[in-house]
Design goal:
This protein has about 110 residues and is an all-alpha fold. It is built from 5 helices and no strands. Helix 3 runs antiparallel to helix 4.
């Protein structure tokens, strides 16, 4: 499962906007610890309906983490004026992200 290609979202339509919103909200909830990946998977019922801005089956590189989490996700939440989320994402360390996903990988 690949993350969103943000370059393709130049012209939004309603369904793309909804998918982007769901993706960003899910990504934030997981990164912030509000929900776990397991909880997200079980609440959607079907894995194909899990939208995230990154592939949760493959650990992001440090560079990709900075691009997706600390740039694209931050920009998205800045545009929505959700500055607390921006601050959290900007301050998140790659090691925190890695631990979060390594814990998930250890269970699958």
């Amino acid at each position: 499962m690949d993350g969103f290609n943000f370059d393709e979202f130049e012209e939004y339509n309603e369904s793309q906007e909804e998918l982007l919103e769901r993706s960003m909200d899910n990504g934030y909830k997981i990164l912030s610890g509000e929900i776990t990946i397991d909880e997200l998977l079980f609440t959607t019922g079907i894995i194909d309906l899990v939208y995230l801005p990154f592939d949760f089956y493959k650990l992001l590189s440090t560079q990709k983490f900075e691009e997706v989490v600390q740039e694209e996700m931050v920009k998205y939440f800045e545009d929505r004026e959700e500055f607390e989320k921006c601050n959290f994402l900007k301050s998140m360390k790659y090691s925190d992200y890695s631990k979060l996903f390594n814990d998930f990988y250890d269970r699958i």
